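Interim report, section 4.2 (structural modelling).
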Amino acid sequence: MTSIALAFLSAGIGAGLAIIGAGLGIGKLAAAAMDATGRQPAASGDIRTTMIIAAALIEGATLFALVVCILLAIKT
Amino acid sequence: MTSIALAFLSAGIGAGLAIIGAGLGIGKLAAAAMDATGRQPAASGDIRTTMIIAAALIEGATLFALVVCILLAIKT
Amino acid sequence: MTSIALAFLSAGIGAGLAIIGAGLGIGKLAAAAMDATGRQPAASGDIRTTMIIAAALIEGATLFALVVCILLAIKT
Amino acid sequence: MTSIALAFLSAGIGAGLAIIGAGLGIGKLAAAAMDATGRQPAASGDIRTTMIIAAALIEGATLFALVVCILLAIKT
Amino acid sequence: MTSIALAFLSAGIGAGLAIIGAGLGIGKLAAAAMDATGRQPAASGDIRTTMIIAAALIEGATLFALVVCILLAIKT
Amino acid sequence: MTSIALAFLSAGIGAGLAIIGAGLGIGKLAAAAMDATGRQPAASGDIRTTMIIAAALIEGATLFALVVCILLAIKT
Amino acid sequence: MTSIALAFLSAGIGAGLAIIGAGLGIGKLAAAAMDATGRQPAASGDIRTTMIIAAALIEGATLFALVVCILLAIKT
Amino acid sequence: MTSIALAFLSAGIGAGLAIIGAGLGIGKLAAAAMDATGRQPAASGDIRTTMIIAAALIEGATLFALVVCILLAIKT
Amino acid sequence: MTSIALAFLSAGIGAGLAIIGAGLGIGKLAAAAMDATGRQPAASGDIRTTMIIAAALIEGATLFALVVCILLAIKT
Amino acid sequence: MTSIALAFLSAGIGAGLAIIGAGLGIGKLAAAAMDATGRQPAASGDIRTTMIIAAALIEGATLFALVVCILLAIKT
Amino acid sequence: MTSIALAFLSAGIGAGLAIIGAGLGIGKLAAAAMDATGRQPAASGDIRTTMIIAAALIEGATLFALVVCILLAIKT
Amino acid sequence: MTSIALAFLSAGIGAGLAIIGAGLGIGKLAAAAMDATGRQPAASGDIRTTMIIAAALIEGATLFALVVCILLAIKT
Amino acid sequence: MTSIALAFLSAGIGAGLAIIGAGLGIGKLAAAAMDATGRQPAASGDIRTTMIIAAALIEGATLFALVVCILLAIKT
Amino acid sequence: MTSIALAFLSAGIGAGLAIIGAGLGIGKLAAAAMDATGRQPAASGDIRTTMIIAAALIEGATLFALVVCILLAIKT
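Predicted structure of the assembly:
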């Protein structure tokens, strides 16, 4: 077993953990966004903007982590 | 046991963890979407649009992670 | 123990974890769907459509992960 | 210990994890179904249909995972 | 230690995990059933039917998993 | 250490996990049963019948799992 | 280290896990019983009967599991 | 390291886990007992009797498990 | 490493787990006791008696477990 | 690595786990004490007495466990 | 296996854990931000500013941790 | 690897676990203290006294545990 | 594998755990800050000041821990 | 691998765990502080003082633990 083996192990599990974080985070904020829309349809555009800003922050960090994972997965 | 063995291990478990994240996230936001629809049927179209945008963000990251996993699963 | 052994290990556990995610996700959104139906029987068709779209997103990712698992389970 | 040993290990634990997911998911949505029936007995048929559709989605994925497990359990 | 050893390990733990899932699931839906009966004694028959359908779905998958476990436990 | 050793390990832990499931499940539904009795003493007999049906479903699966465990515990 | 060693390990941990299940289950249903008694002192006898039936179901399964554990603990 | 070593390991951890179960269970039911007393001081004696019956059921099973642990701890 | 080593390991961890159980249990019931006192200062003595009975049950089992741990810690 | 090594390992982790239990327990009951004081400032002295009795029970068991840990930490 | 192997392992898993923290944190605060916007659309700008300050604090620490991870992932 | 190695391992992890306990405990009770102050500013001094007594109990046990950890960390 | 390997392992995982703590903590307090702003826009400046003081306390400890991690990551 | 290796491992993970505790604790109490400020802006100074006292208690213990970690991280 060479050193690369653990890089492969870490790539898959790290990607899985990152999606747990991203899923819980975006799921929670989008749930709140739809809740707020349902309560105040008039503020719908304003809420959707806020939602996309916050989701982008999580998405950005997630993609950064996934890039770390893909770096590890394609080591040879 | 060659280095590939741990890649296989990580592919399956990583895919499983990613689905936990995606399931919890999309489940939570879709639950909120249906809750909001039930409370304000008039805003139904608006809510469904928001739901699909947010679900797409999670789905995208999940598929990215699953691609990392499938890369690991088909190593030879 | 050859490299395939860990592929087998990962296939079963990954499938189990994926079902945990799918079960929690679809369970949560279907619960919300029935809750909303019980509160607004008139919007029943609209809610069921939203439910099926969201469930399909989770189901799709789950089947993708299960295909990764079955790929690992039938390695020889 | 041959490679098959880990297939056996994964078959049992994977089946157990899959039932945790299925149990939590179907339990949650059926609980919501009965709650909604108790609140609106008139919509009982409509709710039961929705419940069976959603439970079938979870049941289907669960059986798929159990088939992966049984494939692993009967390896020789 | 032969390969069968891990089959034995997996049989017992898998059975235990499956009962956790079944117990939580049936416990939750039966709790909701009794809650609904207590609120609407008139709909009692209707609710009990729904409860038995849903519990049967969980029970069926659980027994399937237990059969996988017993297959593993009686290997020689 | 022969193969039987892991059968013993799995028997005890599996039995413990099964009781966790059974305890949580029966505890939850019996709690709901008593709650409903306290709210509607008139429906007491009806609720107790439902409780015993549901508890029997969990108890049956639990005993099935315990039989798997005892099979493993008395291997020689 | 002979095979018996793992039987001893499993006896103690299994007994501990079984008590977690029994404690949570009986604790939850007895809490509900006392809650219901406090709300309807008139139904006190009826509730205590239901409580003892349900607690007996959990206690029985727990003792069954503890017997499995004691079988493992006194192996020689 | 002889076989007895794992018996010692299991004695301490099993005792700890058993106390977690007993503590959570008795803590929960006693909390409910005091809650009910605070709401209905007149039913105080009746509630305390119910509390002691239920606590005895948990205490009994816990002591049974602790005896299993002490059997393991004093092996030589 | 002799057999005693695992007895030492188990003594410390078992004591820690036992305190988690005792702390959660006594903490929960004492919280309820003070809550009830705050709501009904007149029943203060009655509630404190009930609290001490229940706390003694947990304390007793905890000390029993700690004695098991100290037996393990002073082995030579 | 001599037998003492595991005693050291267990001393630190056991002390940490004991503080988790003590912190959660005393934190919960003191929170309830302050809640009750805030609601009934007149009963302040009575509540503080009850709080100190209960906290002493947890503190005592915790110190007992910490003594077990320090016994293990100073072995030579 | 050289020392670098564990650096690779830690890079992927650490990135995954960091995203769990970032996702939960930003998800929670953005959910509160949208909730508050829905309740007081007039304070929308003020709330969004507060949200971005707090999210930046989490994002900053997350990126710091991801840089630690990428440092580990590109070691040779 | 000498025996001291595990003492170092246990020092760091034990200190971390102790802070989890202390943080959760003091956090919970201080939260309740501020909640009560916000509801009854007049009882502010009385509440702060109670808070400091309870926090001191947790702080004391925590420092005791940290001293155990530092004893382990400075072994040579 | 030299001693440095474990330093690398600990750097990544420690950084990840620290971000979980920081994310949950800052997320919770910023959520409360926005909640309070939404309820009392007039106190907005006062609340934001309190939020930044508390967030700084967490941020400071987090950066301290990250510095420990980076010290470990750049060992050679 | 020398003894120092485990000191490094413990330094990073211990620091991470300590931040989890500190983050949860300070996050919870600061959230309560802001909640109380939002409800009673007049008591703002009084609440902030209480918050800083309690946060200092957690911060102090956290820094103590981090010092233990840094002691371990700089061993040579």
